[in-house]
Amino acid sequence: MKKFLNWYKLDNSAKLYPILITKNSQSLFRLSALLIEEIDEERLSQALSDIMPRFPSFAVRLRNGVFWYYLEENNRPTKVFRDDGIMLKPIDIAATNHYWFRVSYFSKKINIDFFHALTDASGGMEFFKALLHRYMTLGGQQIGNDNVLEYLAPSSESEMEDSFQTNYQKTRLKDLDLKSFTGIKPMFLEGKLLNGQGYGAIIGTMSASGFKEKAKQLNTGLNTLICALLMQSIAKTYETKLKKKPIVMMIPVNLHRVFGGNSLRNFVLFTRLCIMPSKDKTLEDYIKECAEQLAEGTKKENIQKQLNTTVRSERAAIFQFMPLPLKYFAFKVGKLFLKARQTMIFSNVGKIDIPQNMTLEKLAVNINVSRQSPVNVGAITVNDKLVISFTRNIVETEIERNFFTTIASLGLDVQIASNFREEQNVL
Fold first, then answer.
1. Which whole-number Å values give the CA distances from 315 to 130, 172, 185, 311, 412, in the listed order?
2. Are 113 and 102 spatial neighbours (Cβ–Cβ below 8 Å)?
3. Backbone angles phi, psi at 406, to 5 degrees
4. Contact between residue 134 and residue 355 where contact means Cβ atoms under 8 Å apart
């Protein structure tokens, strides 16, 4: 008798990602880990195979239904790939056996590229930690099971829940805060687009405790200081052609830290920083404005209102029962007329707790970019190493240069690495 496959609805945040896929663009993000030894492909492949039963929300393929896409159980073999150096290239589902993540390696580094419909950075990191833990234990390392989802443990229903629906508070259509989603027209970053597939990446590594101490001296926190430095670096890069348009920075908020829960699916909303750049503004000026707006945007009552608006809008009958082809057409047409409402996305995954004796040099996160948002930034901390990663699809690197130069001028030691994608552009 034929076995029926399990299937799952996409979470509230994930429903739009499949509709927005194009041939050359998917909503991907990358988590990567630098180890202290060369990667063994066979062992990595075995580790991935071993952990898959523990993570049913990742062991899926994407299907299209009448009204929405959905996820269906995928029992095909998983694969690992040798990294070809093409940063965040689209996932070829024929090559991955229809899995919407891609594990790759090169030298001492392991990467996972995730399609955002599967998970966010928080859920992706739990999957990644489990993979790293299993890989290392297969190699004979004695590692604790703390701070990791052990691969032989059963999965829980709460890990599969759509936390948007769980935390939704009933809201009338007339009470929706739709203006919070539209924003104002921002300053856009300019530059020459890179040729071919693959993005540019420049990564800075520094002491997290040293950076926090510098932030403390400036009467602020780590996240606010990074935001302020990014704002100032953009303003300095474009100081000769500043217009009366604000720098708008979109910042994902990990809602698990607000509402709790342990879902491995998407549970993120964005808060928006909107600051008018000026040649006369100091770093302290940017810090003050960023701190005020971050405090307001991350208040629980404001996040709850945004969550309610997000869920209630999706539940509207006209949208809920619109056939999928019509939804697809409507969004494609909308993209022709509506530009992005941000200058840059900055995502700080935060401090990652790892099992005892897990030997990691560092972690990094790279955020997908687009034509309208050509430079995005990710940050992550492990073992007191703060790694700030710029991902871009333009040749110019002036923002990165200004950013890391300012960090060095604050007395912080920073190590810079690059994939030198801009040099490939002239070949």
1. 35, 11, 28, 6, 49
2. yes
3. -65, -40
4. no
Cβ–Cβ < 8 Å for 59, 71: no
Both structure tokens of 152: 């032989």
| Spatial contact of 103 and 44, defined as CB atoms under 8 Å apart | yes
Give the tens place of pLDDT for each residue, 2-17. 456 788 888 888 877 8
Q: How far apart are CA 413 and CA 74, in angstroms?
A: 46
Nearest of 122, 155, 169, 142 to residue 380 by alpha carbon? 122
With a CB cutoff of 8 Å and minimum separation 6, the contacts of 286 are: 227, 228, 229, 231, 232, 275
Distance CA 18, CA 118 (A): 10
Token duo for residue 346:
């900055």
Handedness of CA 115, 116, 121, 126 (dihedral sign): negative
What lies within 8 Å, CB to CB, of 323 at 6+ separation is 66, 67
DSSP 3-state assignment of 384? coil
CB atoms within 10 A of CB 84: 11
Residue whose entry in the numeric block shows the structure tokens 């871009």: 392
Return the DSSP state at 342.
Answer: -
Which tens digits make up the pLDDT trace of 133-173? Answer: 999 999 999 999 999 999 999 999 999 999 999 999 988 76
Rounded Cα–Cα distance for residues 71 and 22 (Å): 19
Coil, helix or strand at residue 92:
coil
